[in-house]
Amino acid sequence: DADVTQTPRNRITKTGKRIMLECSQTKGHDRMYWYRQDPGLGLRLIYYSFDVKDINKGEISDGYSVSRQAQAKFSLSLESAIPNQTALYFCATSDPRYPQPQYFGPGTRLLVL
Amino acid sequence: KQEVTQIPAALSVPEGENLVLNCSFTDSAIYNLQWFRQDPGKGLTSLLLIQSSQREQTSGRLNASLDKSSGRSTLYIAASQPGDSATYLCAVYLYNFNKFYFGSGTKLNVKP
Questions:
Q1: Is B62 helix (H, G, I), strand (E, B) or coil?
Q2: SS3 of chain B: helix, strand, coil, percent, to 5
Q3: Taking Cα atoms as reference points, which of A35, A84, A78, A7 lies closest to residue B89?
Q4: Counting one residue from A and one from B, how many pairs have CB atoms under 8 Å apart?
Q5: Contacts of A48 in chain B (CB under 8 A)
Q6: Is the separation of the CB atoms in A9 and A30 below 8 Å?
Q7: Interface of chain B toward chain A, CB-CB under 8 angstroms
Q8: What span, in angstroms and rounded, lies between the C-alpha atoms of A12 and B58?
Q9: A17-72: per-residue pLDDT in tens?
């Protein structure tokens, strides 16, 4: 089984709808991240969490919110989806111990019509 | 703000060729540098991680080097194969900011 899983893997939604992307991990890591990837661009950080009570905004948090339900679960919500949020979304975890490698989920492909 | 640049954006080589992918970063106070492989529409697979105190790491036909003073890392792929075709991304971790910064990737095509 994969260490970091994301659901759904693909999602089509309409402008204005609220949607949630979910991430679960079995690595036992405290640190979790949400990124989005657009064609020709690198990954951009949306939100990150270092433990259940610690949530931080990344560089592109506007229009998104997150919930850390447990150490193993970190959800990303689009409150009112818009077409320019069409992208590939990745969840990742990292071990806070040096050297802190990151581990990625398989991604969720989101299309907002 | 850390800037991570990967050049070239795309590379096409014949099978069997040795090749080098480049990654440069502006802030040398990195904690580690990680190279990833991404197949189309898929997630990121970690290839190599170089700790800030290291100069290089090797895994099979892959060798990654790190020169913090010049803000550069290279990923060397020996005897390339069509199965190596993918996008390769580098990412640096800045301890002071507790964040990873990614380059936009190099898309590699190895022709049979």
A1: strand
A2: 5, 60, 40
A3: A35
A4: 58
A5: 98-99
A6: no
A7: 4, 9, 31-32, 34, 36, 41-46, 49, 51-52, 89, 91, 93, 98-100, 102-105
A8: 41
A9: 999 999 999 999 999 999 999 987 789 999 999 999 999 999 899 999 999 999 99
User: Which residues does residue A90 pair with via DSSP β-bridges, in sequence order?
Assistant: A35
- Cross-chain residue pair B100–A103, CB shorter than 8 Å: no
Residue in chain A closest to B89 (alpha carbons) equals A42
Residue type at A14 in one-letter notation: K
The tens digit of pLDDT for each residue in B1-53 reads 788 999 999 999 999 999 999 999 998 888 899 999 999 878 899 999 999 89
Q: Which helix (H) or strand (E) holds B5?
A: strand B4-7
Q: Which residues does residue A67 pair with via DSSP β-bridges, in sequence order?
A: A75
Strands B10-14 and B106-111: parallel
DSSP state of A21: E
Cα dihedral B28/B30/B32/B38 (nearest 10): -80
Q: Do A42 and B102 touch (CB under 8 A)?
A: yes
For residue B10, give the chain A residue with the closest CA.
A40
Q: Is B103 helix (H, G, I), strand (E, B) or coil?
A: coil
Between CA A30 and CA A65 the distance in angstroms is 19
